[in-house]
Every structure is written in structure tokens, then in C-alpha cells.
Task: structure prediction
Amino acid sequence: MDPIRGLGDIVRLGQSHPSVVLPGMSDEQRIRATYDQVAHKYHRELGAELDGKPLDRALLDAVAELCQDEPLVDLGCGPGHVTAYLAERHTGVTGIDLSPEMIRIARIENPGVEFRVESMLDLSAGDASWGGIIAFYSIIHLTPRQRVQAIQEMSRVLQPSGWLLLSFHINDEDFKAGDVNHLTEWFGHDVDIDGYFIDPDEITKHMDEAGMSVVASTIRQPNPDVEYPSRRCYLLGQKK
Result:
């Protein structure tokens, strides 16, 4: 899920009861509540984003092929549009997200695909269960310590020689790698959430320490016509 960009008007998909951001919430509770509130706008604005992102499609196609018939998981799947793209190219695809409202929308939009509500910091899957993980912008709300924990957890559930494709924001005109963009208003809602700009060397180091080798890396320049104008990194790792 990409938290940086402002989105369009709300879409109603049946009745729901999104969470509300309240003082004293934990980091995960604030992330969950924020995405519950903005889920419909997010879905409306970003549901077709892959149409304008040929590099993203090519990388997703590559991971789907590399994973062959092994389970492939879209971690931080949001409303499920990337999961749906993968499911057209690979059997055994599952979408996982922290936000129940995002998962509710994903299930409505993609009834033939499996979706689950879980935290990437404490996945229910057993060791060496998955052949591949897609994590597009899924770590950008995590503190540095939580990023280490998340990458270790991803490595735990990957099979030997399994694949991980990560993406994240590096910097933009106002923020450099290592900076934090604290949001208090988003899509007309009062929120309390941090978005991190991340140094690729940091994530490469964490992946290596978690038993994964980075086999390919790409830095993409801003594409303001289709997304928030930040420099972005894609890292493709393989479990040792």
C-alpha cells in the first residue's frame, strides 16, 4: 500500500464500519485504522494503477514465473489489485493486509482470490511455506526496528530459494532517505501515521542479515503522471 498520495472521491461498497484513529493506539493500530478509513478512496484511485506502470508489471510477471507452482503472497495487498494481476498469471496466490476494510474490498472485487487479515510482523504461515512474496510499499510505515522484524519474518516463511520483491520510496523534493513524513490529515480524515523514506542500502543489509541475497535492484525516477513523484527502489531477493 502506498500512503503518500492524495486520492479521489469515496466509493461505497456496501456497509462497513472502518476503524477510527484514537490517542494511545499502537503503531499497528494506527496503521490499521488509517487504512480502514481511506480504503474506498484508495481503491478508486489506485485500482487501475498498474495500467500506467510497465516496470511494475514486468517485475510482477518475472516473480510469478520464478515461483512456478509454489505459493505466492501479496503482502500488504490493500484492495487487491496487484493480487488480482498476479492471480491471472499464477495459481495459489493469496493477498494479506493489516486493514480489514481493505480486505473486505479486495474480496468483493476479486471473489475467486484468497485474502486474509494479518500483520506482516507476525505471520500465521509456518516456516518455509511460501515460494514468493510481493511487498509493494508494504514496509514504508514501519519504524527501522519494525522493518528488521518484518524482513526477518518474510525470510522465515519463504522456502529455500524463495523470492521476495520489495519496493519503497527513497526520496522526493522535500524528503531525503531516512526522513519521516508525518501525516495528520489524509483524504479528509484526521490521521496519525508516519511514512518513511528509506535508503536502499539499509534494506539490502537487512535482507542479507535475514538470509536473503539481493539478485537485482532498480531505482526508478518519479512518474508524476501516474503517482506521487518520488524516487522508488525495487529489490529482488532470493532466500539462501
User: Anything to note?
Assistant: The chain has a mean pLDDT of 91.
